[in-house]
Design goal:
Elements (H helix, E strand, L loop, with lengths): L14 H4 L11 H11 L4 H7 L4 H8 L7 H11 L3 H4 L19 E3 L2 E5 L7 E8 L14 E9 L1 E5 L2 E5 L4 E5 L4 E5 L5 E8 L13
Antiparallel strand pairs: 1-2, 2-3, 3-9, 4-7, 4-9, 5-6, 5-8
Helix pairs in contact: 3-4
Length: 212
């Protein structure tokens, strides 16, 4: 088993350890896109890593394609760079097209998660259709500005908000403030499928918020 940056054992609850080794065929455009967006924002590797709560070494591995980002990690980096997951994935469909056709955009996979874009790019509200695998990143706590809404399509989902745990079945939904420490995980071995919507908001001072 490989060790994580700093020589400590890998910890699936830590964002820097949650992603596995990169699969160039899975997300081929992410690495150069991450580097280009960081430079466009005028951020050093160290500054961007601190805002995303990653180590500089881990962010460097993401930018060189040696590691594959998880979905929560992509969401966090999108907020840091003031962009969308779609742009991080290199997807640039016409901005004026309001309809997302089934099958037009193939699913992307990262760290066991599978997701499709379900809304238009460049919007303050981002919509995804997500498949959450069982046991993947169930302990990864997230805290960030904005709101999140989710609707369970299949399977069962475990949603933790602060100290309260909720189990959601198909047809159940949740809408919450993203500054509440939260985590999502599949509650059954077959995983869960959901519609997921989040607002793309940046904190004026990312360092002032609690760390996950």
């Amino acid at each position: 088993m490989s060790s994580s940056p700093g020589g400590r054992p890998p910890d699936p609850r830590h964002p820097a350890d949650a992603a596995g080794e990169a699969s160039q065929e899975t997300l081929p455009h992410v690495a150069p896109q991450l580097r280009a967006l960081r430079r466009r924002r005028g951020l050093t590797l160290e500054a961007a890593a601190q805002r995303a709560e990653l180590s500089p070494a881990h962010l460097s591995r993401l930018e060189t394609g040696r590691r594959q980002p998880s979905l929560p990690m992509l969401l966090g980096l999108a907020r840091v760079y003031g962009t969308t997951v779609s742009e991080l994935l290199g997807e640039k469909p016409p901005e004026s097209e309001p309809v997302v056709r089934a099958g037009r955009m193939g699913p992307a996979e990262a760290d066991g998660w599978s997701y499709r874009r379900a809304g238009g790019p460049g919007r303050a509200m981002q919509a995804l259709r997500v498949k959450v695998p069982y046991g993947a990143q169930g302990d990864l706590v997230r805290v960030h500005p904005g709101e999140e809404w989710l609707y369970v399509l299949a399977g069962r989902l475990r949603l933790t908000l602060g100290d309260v745990v909720h189990e959601l079945s198909p047809g159940d939904s949740a809408h919450f403030d993203s500054l509440t420490p939260h985590r999502i995980a599949a509650a059954v071995p077959e995983g869960a499928e959901l519609l997921f919507v989040h607002t793309l908001l940046q904190s004026p001072d990312p360092h002032s918020h609690p760390h996950a």
